[in-house]
Amino acid sequence: xxxxxxxxxxxxxxxxxxxxxxxxxxxxxxxxxxxxxxxxxxxxxxxxxxxxxxxxxxxxxxxxxxxxxxxxxxxxxxxxxxxxxxxxxxxxxxxxxxxxxxxxxxxxxxxxxxxxxxxxxxxxxxxxxxxxxxxxxxxxxxxxxxxxxxxxxxxxxxxxxxxxxxxxxxxxxxxxxxxxxxxxxxxxxxxxxxxxxxxxxxxxxxxxxxxxxxxxxxxxxxxxxxxxxxxxxxxxxxxxxxxxxxxxxxxxxxxxxxxxxxxxxxxxxxxxxxxxxxxxxxxxxxxxxxxxxxxxxxxxxxxxxxxxxxxxxxxxxxxxxxxxxxxxxxxxxxxxxxxxxxxxxxxxxxxxxxxxxxxxxxxxxxxxxxxxxxxxxxxxxxxxxxxxxxxxxxxxxxxxxxxxxxxxxxxxxxxxxxxxxxxxxxxxxxxxxxxxxxxxxxxxxxxxxxxxxxxxxxxxxxxxxxxxxxxxxxxxxxxxxxxxxxxxxxxxxxxxxxxxxxxxxxxxxxxxxxxxxxxxxxxxxxxxxxxxxxxxxxxxxxxxxxxxxxxxxxxxxxxxxxxxxxxxxxxxxxxxxxxxxxxxxxxxxxxxxxxxxxxxxxxxxxxxxxxxxxxxxxxxxxxxx
Length: 625
Known about the structure:
The protein is α/β, with parallel strands linked by helices. Helix 21 links the parallel strand 18 and strand 19. The radius of gyration is 32 Å and the shape is elongated. The protein starts with a helix and ends in a 6-residue tail after the last helix.
């Protein structure tokens, strides 16, 4: 009898232990992460859940973007994971239509979800048949800007599109670079299409755009005209460089550019040394009634095939209740109705959150709603328009539906040379000779160069306050105006300037004092020549405007550079011209790069002995000097 009792005791202990083990319910969660910091935040959140609800054991699996999206279809069929990370918009809608995800409001009461989640966010994950995802974070988009540059340039945050365009032109006129745009990855540049489409035709037009149905309509014409206001004046900094979003942010931090359009995900990448100097403002609207904002939304979904979907209520409620903490730890915005503004980390995030909470219409990012082929082509078209400073490529892609061959995505295995940035004045074709020449010289030395062109001498000189590395090409007298620059001793070439006359006699003799001479630039040598000869100069913004005035006058006078003579020879058949100035042109580098001076000087001397140099001179009509 005692043996029998002892046996029952052992069996009872075994059953009690088994019950305890079974009570620890295992749940599986698969998450897409982009970095170690995100992974740590997720681990901590689910660890806190296990501590609070010790009857659960949560197994986490982390994947990069490519692997997660590759494996998602099989997980939805197999039920291997109980909860999956996913993204709202068309990507969520597709899963709803495929009927592969469990409505969340079958696991948590709909009234509980609706009362806890912001209305616009709740709308993003619901339809007439149910609520299909649990939102957990969103992040806004807008302009991150350099506060110190705004102060130095005496400008303020714009509140409308017209103010924004005027701001960009003002910044450029003072010698700074208004905008830098990430184009390397392709997708960041699409934010322009999201905002401009909402501003142009609201959500209806934006829906047409992402579905590929907006070709050749009036709203597309309006969008193109609006973006075109930012093109043609060199407002985008170093557009030929394929900036990653991290590099674009660094350009703003370093005062190389004033603003960049980007998402709140950059918060964790802001250098702590620049934290207080980086501000944020929402995308300025042209249409005052437009209330739409871009706010990509992250969600949790439950596969219909999940093995433990009926045991997820505690975890889902925990994630909803602790949303503010989890979202802010991910450098994102919460999605709940609670007053979380005081808990946000800085003014940038608070301004972004305020814009989103005031918006009646939150949309997902363009590439989350559009077919991959469409979003990729329009990203290339946008990047190409920025690169060429022309609306043409975007018009071809958006209005004509033409496929772009512009390459925007650099592979990680491609070596990127360090880049230097040079200022130059507009209005003289010889600067293009210099940019071709110096591109070759710097490439030999292991650098790439970018040229930012300014319309005034003052703006060019002022650019050195904002990190410009030197002056592309100037005459020798320039060193008196720019003591922070060092001249490369070897000249790039000699350049000739010509006095063009309607009257042959005027060109063959001294000009009467006070004569008016038409010019298209404010070059020092031309200014000095005019002063020495007691002449007045009148500047025109373009060669076309100059010729119109010159041709209307019977005794017109103007000064042109060598390449301008050859470019416009057809227009000069009834005129005569003579050389008035012949000067050497020099390249200048900032004193911070003094160690490059002998290297550049030596490379330039060797290069001038090559056929490539002679071909460049001939191309720009400098072969006689």
